Structures are given as structure tokens and as C-alpha cells.
């Protein structure tokens, strides 16, 4: 078979990294070595077995399928790639994501999407505590429930929860929008329920569509956001300090 | 950081592998804590003997001749099996408290790691693999066990500062986190008559549970009490003679993953610790909820 045919085939088959055979550093270095316009657009990671930092810092629009569960910080700082974890994710999945998308087929541990600036994080199972903490523009869609202190100090972006939210949702929130379909155990300081206007229904429908959610209507959700009472120091509270 | 593991077997056919399984789980978390490591194994009960695990920095000096001296002093046969810096003293259950006091009188430098009908505790400074090898933990059989690899925060890196901490018969505890009210709680427990070997915060948590259980609470009720009486960060994994429990503080920033199958219940600080367990791909895997007590008993 001529060499040209071989390389052409390789461009369409996913490049497979078995983490039982190669190191995590080799995988991440290979992903970081991708040049703009590379033909290696499909990647598959086998046997992650809870490894930390799988596919962190990818900055090319490639698709990465991770077959199994990952540990801390999977897809952190992602910029443009499409990562699918066919398993569950440890703490800090998609931390500081810039763009692209990450889908977790299972559950996510604490602080999923923390400080994310852009892109879409979809968790098809449940997320635990501090989901979307300090989010700065990322969109997060959780099919299940989220834990306590989620969206703490969330600055912008959207957090959509099809299930329930734990205690202190949106504590000290700035301008992020929170949409919860189920019950909220309690709202954090300065987080309040807000009116769902036409523009929010439209925004939410777009997020549900992007996350592949069907059979759920935007009108089933409640919107929560900042009461904006913490933006400026209130002199009447001076005695509290 | 710190890494903690626990394994509670439901399937008796796995008991010969308990030491090997728990060792592998702990070694997989070595990078969570390189300072010291320890393991507690709950072996098969015997009607005729109870055990004390002892430790010495100078085992050649302290363990030599101790068997005969101790047997003579308490008037009962005693066996001592030495494993590196540790040794397991076996004698009749009725004499176990006397044996403990006598050991400390005969050899003041010996430290008691723990005592009970079934538990053996091994802990030393060093990486989990070195500690496991030193005490031949992989060959140990048992019904359940807990382990810890430590990144020290609250007290010095010493053998006695390593986990598990044992403060009551067949009771021990490993901890990821740090407690902020341990000095107050220690003072209260001392007033009750509890004794402490270290300045360590985790020893206070262990003694708190021992005290609660001594007052008639079961493991679950004692763990429930930690949520109101202990302040700080904690994920605790606790072993008793026939039980195994887990609790996380309400903030729950210390990581925890559990897995359950028909064969076992397993705990790891991270999923990495569970990946080599049999049937893990089909296990129920979940993150224990904050401020929620989980416990199992045989």
C-alpha cells in the first residue's frame, strides 16, 4: 500500500492514547504540539483510571473521547476542543475553560467549571459542591443535581440545572444567571429568585439545545441571580465588622 | 492533601486478599502524602487471644526478651511476633489491659499503636510502598481495613503522628483535613479520663469517637456527633471490630469517592484508589454527601 494512502487513513482514524501504555505527559504534550489546521482532529484516550489533568490546556479544535473516568482538572483551560468523558470526572473538571465544550457522561465532583471564562460544560449526571464557583462567562448545563455552594461568587455566564440545587446557591453572586428546574435547598447571600422574561426563555432554550437536552421546556425553570445589595458597602452594616 | 482508603469486605472469599487490595489502594495515592503512611487491618477473631500492636524506635533493644519477661510478670503465656519496628503481642483477652500496662512499665520507650481482639496497626514515616513492604501488609488477611498516607499539617512528621489513630479497643480512625477546635475537645476528653499520646488533631477525633462509643452510642451515632462537636475540615474513615464508617464535614472540601458491590464497600480520597478493585466497572460509585454518616457492620 502506498505511503500516501496510509497517512490519509490515519488522518481520519482517531489517534489513540492508551494510558496503560503511554504516560499522561506524552498525551498532553502530543495535544499541545498540534498545529493550527492539523489533520489529527480525532483523539481517543483509553484507560484514564482516574488520572489527573487529562487533556488540559488543549488549544486546537479537535475532538477527544476519553473512555473511562478521570481525576482532577480534566480539560482545564480548554480552548476550542470538544472533550467527551465516557465516565465520571473528579474535582475541577473544565476549570478555567476558555472555549470549546466538555461533556461528562457520568457525574462530576466538586468545583466543576470553576472560574470558566467561556465554552460549554455539560454534565449528564450530577455535579457535587461548588459547581460553577467564580464562573466568568462559561455556560454549564447539569442534567442531574448540583451540590452546596454552587455558583459562589459567580460573575457571568449561565448555570442550568435540570434537577435540584443544594444549600447556599449563588452566594455573593455578581451577574451570572442561574436556572434551576427542581428545588433549591437554600439561596446564598444576595441571591434571589428573579422573573423569567421572554429573553431568558429564549436564552435558556438555546442552552438546552446546545447541550442536547430534549423534552424539557424553559418554562419549567426558575431564574436566580444577584440582588446587587453587596456591590457597595452599606454603612448600616458597619457594626458587623 | 493526605490520602485515605478503606475497604470493608462482604464476600468472605476476598478476605485472604484484604492486605494486598488495601496496600494497592493506598500506594495509588502516594502523591497525596509522602510523609508517613499507616494501615489498620481487622483480622479473624479468636476466643482465646487479644492483641496489642507495639512500636519501638529501637526494636532490637526493646523487643529482646520481652516475651518471657511479660509472660512472667502477668502470669499468662504471651507470644510476640516482631515485624520490623512493630510487634504484635498476643495473650488471653482477660489479661490484655494488664499486659498493656506491664509493657509500658518494662519498656518505657515502647509505644502502643493499638489494641483489641482483632486489629493490628502498622504505621511509619515514609512512602506507602515502603511502609507496606516493611510490615508485609500485602500478605495479611482480614475482614476490613483502613489506610492513610500523610501530608503533615497539624503536627510533626513522626511515627506517632502518622495515622491510623487508635484510642479504644479495636477502634481506629484516619483523617483527611485539619481540626480547629482540637485543643478544647482534648481538654474536655482529658477531664473525662481519656489519655493522649500526641499533640495531633486527628488523635482527638479518634478519642472523641471512643468516648462517645464508651457512653453507649453506636458507630453511626458517634459519627453523627462529630458534625456538631468537631470544627474544621474532615473526611473521616473509621474502623471498629465489626464496622466501617465514613463522614465528611458540612463543607466537604476534602475529596471522597465510594464504591459498593455485592463483594465489598470501598472508600478512596480519589477514584484512582478504586480502579483495580474487582468488578469496579459495574460497581455503584458515588461521592459521599456532606454532613452525612455512612456505616456498615458485619
Question: Main traits of this protein?
Answer:
A: 241 residues, alpha/beta, eleven-stranded mixed β-sheet, 13% helix, disordered N terminus, B: 298 residues, alpha+beta, Alpha-Beta Plaits, 2 domains, seven-stranded antiparallel β-sheet
Explain the overall architecture.
The complex is a heterodimer of chains A (241) and B (298). Chain A is α/β, with parallel strands linked by helices. Chain A has one domain (49-221). Chain A is built from three helices and eleven strands; from the N terminus they run αβαβββββββββαβ. Chain A has helices at 3-12, 24-32, 198-210; strands at 15-18, 42-46, 63-67, 79-85, 99-104, 120-123, 136-142, 156-161, 177-180, 191-194, 222-226. Chain A has an eleven-stranded mixed sheet. The N and C termini of chain A lie far apart (77 Å). The mean pLDDT of chain B is 96. Chain B contains eight helices and 16 strands. Chain B is α+β, with helices and mostly antiparallel strands. Chain B folds into two domains: 3-43 and 138-297, Aminohydrolase, N-terminal nucleophile (Ntn) domain (Glutamine Phosphoribosylpyrophosphate, subunit 1, domain 1); 46-117, Alpha-Beta Plaits (2-Layer Sandwich), CATH 3.30.70.120. In chain B, 26% of the residues lie in helices and 32% in strands. In chain B, strands 7-2-8-1-14-13-15 form a seven-stranded antiparallel sheet, covered by helices on one side. A five-stranded antiparallel sheet of chain B has the order 9-10-11-12-16. A four-stranded antiparallel sheet of chain B has the order 4-5-3-6, with helices on one face. In chain B, α6 (182-192) crosses α7. Chain B is globular and about 55 Å long. In chain B, a hairpin with a 3-residue loop joins β11 (232-239) and β12 (243-248). Chain A binds chain B through residues 49-51, 69, 71-72, 88, 90-91, 107, 109-110, 128-129, 147-149, and chain B through 250-253, 255, 257, 270-275, 285-287, 289-290.
Amino acid at each position: 500500500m502506498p505511503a500516501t494512502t496510509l497517512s490519509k487513513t490515519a488522518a481520519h482514524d482517531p489517534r489513540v492514547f492508551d494510558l496503560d501504555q503511554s504516560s499522561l505527559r506524552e498525551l498532553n504534550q502530543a495535544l499541545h504540539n498540534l498545529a493550527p489546521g492539523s489533520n489529527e482532529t480525532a483523539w481517543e484516550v483509553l484507560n484514564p483510571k482516574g488520572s489527573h489533568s487529562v487533556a488540559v490546556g488543549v488549544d486546537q479544535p479537535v475532538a477527544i473521547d476519553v473512555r473511562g473516568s478521570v481525576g482532577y482538572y480534566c480539560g482545564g483551560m480548554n480552548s476550542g476542543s470538544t472533550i467527551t468523558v465516557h465516565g465520571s470526572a473528579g474535582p475541577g473538571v473544565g476549570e478555567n475553560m476558555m472555549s470549546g465544550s466538555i461533556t461528562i457522561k457520568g457525574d462530576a465532583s466538586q468545583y466543576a467549571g470553576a472560574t470558566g471564562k467561556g465554552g460549554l460544560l455539560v454534565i449528564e449526571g450530577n455535579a457535587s459542591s461548588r459547581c460553577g464557583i467564580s464562573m466568568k462567562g462559561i455556560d454549564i448545563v447539569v442534567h442531574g443535581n448540583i451540590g452546596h455552594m454552587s455558583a459562589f461568587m459567580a460573575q457571568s455566564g449561565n448555570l442550568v440545572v435540570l434537577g435540584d440545587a443544594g444549600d447556599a446557591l449563588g452566594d455573593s453572586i455578581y451577574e451570572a444567571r442561574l436556572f434551576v428546574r427542581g428545588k433549591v435547598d437554600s439561596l446564598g447571600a444576595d441571591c434571589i429568585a428573579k422573573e423569567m422574561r421572554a429573553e431568558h426563555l429564549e436564552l435558556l432554550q438555546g442552552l438546552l439545545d446546545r447541550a442536547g437536552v430534549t423534552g424539557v421546556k424553559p418554562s419549567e425553570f426558575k431564574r436566580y441571580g444577584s440582588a446587587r445589595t453587596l456591590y457597595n458597602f452599606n454603612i448600616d452594616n458597619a457594626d458587623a465588622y | 492533601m493526605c490520602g485515605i482508603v478503606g475497604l470493608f469486605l462482604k464476600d468472605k472469599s476476598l478476605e485472604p486478599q484484604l492486605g494486598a487490595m488495601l496496600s494497592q489502594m493506598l500506594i495509588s495515592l502516594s502523591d497525596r502524602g509522602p510523609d508517613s503512611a499507616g494501615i489498620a487491618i481487622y483480622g479473624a477473631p479468636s476466643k482465646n487471644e487479644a492483641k496489642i500492636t507495639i512500636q519501638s524506635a529501637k526494636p532490637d533493644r526493646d523487643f529482646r526478651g520481652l516475651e518471657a519477661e511479660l509472660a512472667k510478670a502477668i502470669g499468662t503465656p504471651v507470644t510476640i511476633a516482631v515485624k520490623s519496628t512493630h510487634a504484635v503481642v498476643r495473650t488471653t483477652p482477660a489479661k490484655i489491659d494488664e499486659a498493656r500496662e506491664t509493657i509500658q512499665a518494662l519498656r518505657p520507650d515502647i509505644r502502643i499503636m493499638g489494641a483489641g481482639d482483632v486489629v493490628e496497626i502498622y504505621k511509619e514515616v515514609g512512602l506507602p510502598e515502603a511502609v507496606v513492604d516493611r510490615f508485609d501488609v500485602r500478605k495479611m488477611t482480614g475482614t476490613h481495613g483502613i489506610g492513610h498516607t500523610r501530608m503533615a499539617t497539624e503536627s510533626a512528621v513522626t511515627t506517632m503522628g502518622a495515622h491510623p489513630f487508635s484510642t479504644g479497643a479495636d477502634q481506629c480512625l484516619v483523617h483527611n483535613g485539619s481540626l480547629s477546635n482540637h485543643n478544647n475537645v482534648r481538654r474536655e476528653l482529658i477531664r473525662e479520663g481519656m489519655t493522649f499520646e500526641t499533640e495531633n488533631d486527628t488523635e482527638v477525633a479518634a478519642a472523641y469517637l471512643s468516648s462517645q462509643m464508651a457512653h453507649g452510642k453506636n458507630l453511626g451515632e458517634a459519627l453523627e456527633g462529630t458534625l456538631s462537636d468537631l470544627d474544621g475540615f474532615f473526611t473521616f474513615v473509621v474502623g471498629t471490630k465489626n464496622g466501617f464508617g465514613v463522614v465528611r464535614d458540612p463543607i466537604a472540601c476534602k475529596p471522597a469517592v465510594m464504591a459498593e458491590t455485592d463483594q465489598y464497600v470501598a472508600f478512596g480520597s480519589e477514584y484512582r484508589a478504586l480502579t483495580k478493585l474487582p468488578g469496579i466497572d459495574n460497581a455503584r460509585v458515588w461521592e459521599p454527601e456532606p454532613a452525612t454518616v455512612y456505616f456498615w457492620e458485619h
